[in-house]
Amino acid sequence: MVSIKPQFAASLYATISISFWGISFVSTKAVLDKLDPYTLIMLRFAIGAVFLLIVLMLKRIPVLIPLMYIPHLIVLGVLGVFVHQVIQVSALLTIDASSAGWMISFSPVFTVMLSMIFLHEKLTFAKSFGILIAISGVLLVTGARSGQTLGFAFNIGYFLMILSTLNWAVYSVLLKKLHIKLPSLTVTFYMSLLGCLLTIPFLLRDRGWERFHLLTGAEWAHILFLGIFVSGIAYWYWSKAHEVLEASKVSMFMYMEPLFTLIAAILLLHEKIFFISILGGIIIIIGVIMVNGQMGSVFQYISWRKR
């Protein structure tokens, strides 16, 4: 049985990871008026790759990997890093960071749908009902900015965020099927390195470095945060939480991500928050919990935290 101290440490690791991921939408939004999406992605993952390489060397984890895993890492890196980040950063050009935070919580719904198709998981009544609830929450969030109470307010940014959640679901299903037997730090390093390399041609095409001098100290701080804390520490701490807590308990922390995005958007970007948008976000999370069959786990987790 795991003692209370390691459980507390694991909970802290998971909370830190989720807070960094939630704030990442705000940091990305803060520098998009100075840098194009590809230049920002290149900087972020270049910094992340250097940081992770230093951590690997300090922990004396081998950097070289078997050749058999290279195709797997390329596929995961293209989908989970390059494509995913290009879509998300492009979405943030036209929508608020807080809205993006709510929308990203819809991702597990697509994961369940794809799992039913490719992993032959069953669709229960509870999952079907949860999907409908989550979709209604998405409609509320997207309609909030146009003054609608229900209905999809067309905005390319919302469409891209939904596409982003679908892409992440595809990545998650592939991650389960590929079974890469490497340390999580090694996998994260190579994915960050690939994300950086894939964006270099676009940096050269757009001469993105010519805008570096426009960045203020605060904006460089946002970029360093994205590279070190989001691309590096967050993934590292998330894996450390999994070493102690059960996967179901760790997954409970994911529902806190939109909250951190919302708080950071208000404090750092001074975004105007609509009640209907918050309501829609809460409905999305409730629907996602039902889809994943975790409603009972939520109550168990709350009881565990009170002990």
- Provide the helix percentage: over 70%
Largest beta-sheet details: none
Return residue spans where pLDDT drops below 50 for at least 5 consecutive residues.
Answer: 146-152, 295-302
Secondary-structure element pattern, one letter each: HHHHHHHHHHHHH
| Tally of alpha and pi helices | 13
Query: How many β strands by DSSP?
Result: 0
Class based on secondary structure composition and strand pairing = mainly alpha
Query: N-to-C terminal Cα separation, in Å?
Result: 15 Å
Q: What general outline do the C-alpha atoms trace?
A: globular
Q: How many domains?
A: 1
Q: Quote the average pLDDT.
A: 77
Q: Report strand %.
A: under 5%
- Oligomeric status of the shown chains? single chain
Provide an overview of this structure.
- It is a single chain.
- The protein is mainly alpha-helical and 307 residues long.
- It has one domain.
- The chain has 13 helices and no strands.
- The protein has helices at residues 4-31, 37-58, 70-91, 97-104, 107-118, 125-144, 156-178, 184-206, 217-242, 247-251, 257-268, 275-291, 295-306.
- Helix 1 (4-31) packs across helix 4, helix 5 (107-118) crosses helix 7 (156-178) and helix 6 runs antiparallel to helix 12 (275-291).
- The longest helix has 28 residues, at 4-31.
